[in-house]
Fold this sequence. Notes:
The protein has eight helices and seven strands, in the order E-H-E-H-E-H-E-H-E-H-E-H-H-H-E.
Amino acid sequence: xxxxxxxxxxxxxxxxxxxxxxxxxxxxxxxxxxxxxxxxxxxxxxxxxxxxxxxxxxxxxxxxxxxxxxxxxxxxxxxxxxxxxxxxxxxxxxxxxxxxxxxxxxxxxxxxxxxxxxxxxxxxxxxxxxxxxxxxxxxxxxxxxxxxxxxxxxxxxxxxxxxxxxxxxxxxxxxxxxxxxxxxxxxxxxxxxxxxxxxxxxxxxxxxxxxxxxxxxxxxxxxxxxxxxxxxxxxxxxxxxxxxxxxxx
Length: 249
Ligand code: NAD
């Protein structure tokens, strides 16, 4: 028995990093997965890996800032698998920079992908989830959505995701659509390479983590799986922090 048997999931940003690991894990747990990303080559690779291990997955090109492309992704899920139960709003981009160093264009780009992208995804899946009597939306925020950081636009976007999650949760609780946010700390993916490869930034970053090491993609994917599955049936509007203790200090 898989923990997601019979479920259909869309994972935005599913071509690499957390999203690719979640796609493979969800498929192993019995879900049919729509991998949605702007990286077509990598996305199709994840699709093929899942097929090789006997799972079911379909790649669809999706730029999360486009409402039309979100509608297409939802339609792809319904055409391929008949319904939709789970959305993981995982796609995101990071940008360093204090307030004075952040341009208007950079602010707009980060807010577009990280905040508007989550809003559009949520809006696109709600009608289909209502039709099947409920669903689970998991929004990937960050510890930068809980406390301030040097990443001005990124923190603002992830803070927006945190509260959009709670608004979605209370607005659709009666329809049995749950919505929770996940707040990873510093995890080993392409997004944090620049940080881990700079010896000075690396030692400063490690010193902030009570557990003394970075987290893995699996650490995040396991939390996302729990929130996506019926095991978290009574959870909505909540924040799952996966950060080795950084924000406990
Ligand atoms: P990543 O860069 O490896 O993966 C991000 C994925 O999102 C990529 O596949 C990318 O192509 C996709 N993407 C970017 N813009 C997109 C767009 N406009 N439309 C569709 N897809 C798009 O990064 P990751 O570390 O796996 O990050 C995944 C999520 O987790 C992001 O939202 C990120 O902000 C968040 N996060 C990461 C960390 C970390 O330490 N790595 C910590 C906290 C939160």
